[in-house]
Each structure stands twice: as structure tokens, then as C-alpha cells.
Design goal:
The model has no long low-confidence stretch (mean pLDDT about 90). It contains four helices and no strands. It is mostly helical.
């Protein structure tokens, strides 16, 4: 990730996480408008919490599957192994897909103006970062990565057959 975008991305992650705690630990009438939920439903809240918990578990499994190839950001001088098994056999960006689902669950759990803005910006940044990573992976893995791209979706599976190398 480029340093300029990190200046905005990191505070958004802090807002995403801290907002839930601020909201839970402060009386609603004392919260500024941007922190107050615009709506609320207990069933939606519990479903959102379940999605967030499952998303965290799934993210940890994806990190484990990537092993030593997992990185935060892109280092153009480093060539990592192309991971195409496990969840990566179906989609190229399972961690970003899971995080996107978790962001949508966060909006459903706490639909405040601040959460809406933070999550929508983060969803945009995830798309941007996925595109940037794909350009890097094409440079480093060439035709093998392009073949993988033809068979798998970016954030959603193209099929449930899974990737098969040529």
C-alpha cells in the first residue's frame, strides 16, 4: 500500500474498531450525532456479530494458508510463492472479500454516519489495493497468474470447481 493512502487507511481502521467500543461504553444521548446509530434491530445485530466472528476466524485461516507468502503491502523486490489452494483456489482475494463482508456487517451492526463513511471508504480502498496487487502479481508470476485469474474470481468465485493449473 502506498504511504499516502496509509495516512487515511490506518485512521479508518481505528475508527472502524474503536467506534463499536465508544458506542457500547457511552450513553446514547451523550454521543455526538456522527456516532449514533440511525437504526437498530437486535436480530440484525446478532447476525452481524456472528458474521464478524466468522470473518475473523476465516481471515486467520487465510493467513495460515498463505504462510510465509503473506505480506502487508507490496515489496517489489520480493517474489513470494503464488498461493492457489484452499480458499485461494476459488477467489484471488479471500482476505479482502472477508474484510468487505465484515465491513458490511459493521454497517448493519452500527449504522451511524461515521461508520457508513469509514466503511464505504475502506471498501473502496480494498478494491483499489486488490487491483494494485494484481498488477504486481502479473509482473512477478506472469502467465501462471493470468491463467489463475481466468479461472478464479476476484472477490466472488467464478465457479465452485476450484483452480486447476494448466
Amino acid at each position: 500500500m502506498r504511504p499516502k493512502i496509509r495516512l487515511l487507511w490506518r485512521p479508518l481502521v481505528v475508527i472502524w474498531i474503536a467506534h463499536h467500543f465508544i458506542n457500547a461504553l457511552t450513553a446514547q444521548e451523550k454521543l455526538p450525532f456522527v456516532f449514533r446509530p440511525l437504526a437498530g434491530n437486535q436480530i440484525v445485530c446478532w447476525i452481524s456479530i456472528a458474521i464478524l466472528a466468522a470473518g475473523l476466524s476465516a481471515t486467520l485461516l487465510c493467513w495460515k494458508r498463505m504462510g510465509k507468502s503473506w505480506r502487508m503491502g507490496i515489496n517489489p523486490n520480493e517474489k513470494t510463492q503464488l498461493i492457489v489452494s484452499g480458499p485461494y483456489a476459488y477467489i484471488r482475494h479471500p482476505i479482502y472479500a472477508i474484510q468487505s463482508l465484515m465491513l458490511l456487517a459493521s454497517i448493519a451492526l452500527l449504522p451511524s454516519p461515521l461508520m457508513l463513511i469509514a466503511c464505504l471508504l475502506m471498501l473502496t480502498f480494498l478494491q483499489w489495493e486488490a487491483h494494485r496487487e494484481e498488477k504486481y502479481l502479473v509482473m512477478h508470476h506472469g502467465a501462471g497468474y493470468l491463467d489463475y485469474c481466468r479461472q478464479t474470481g476476484g472477490f466472488l468465485p467464478r465457479s465452485f470447481r476450484g483452480y486447476r493449473s494448466a
